[in-house]
Amino acid sequence: REAQLRQFVAEQGENCLFALSDTRLKEGINIKNFKGYSFLRGDKNYSSEMATAGGVALLIPERWTIMKLDRTSAGDQCESLSTVIIPPGDNKPFILSTVYNHPGNYLPHQFLS
Question: What is the reported pLDDT for 105?
Answer without folding.
Answer: 74
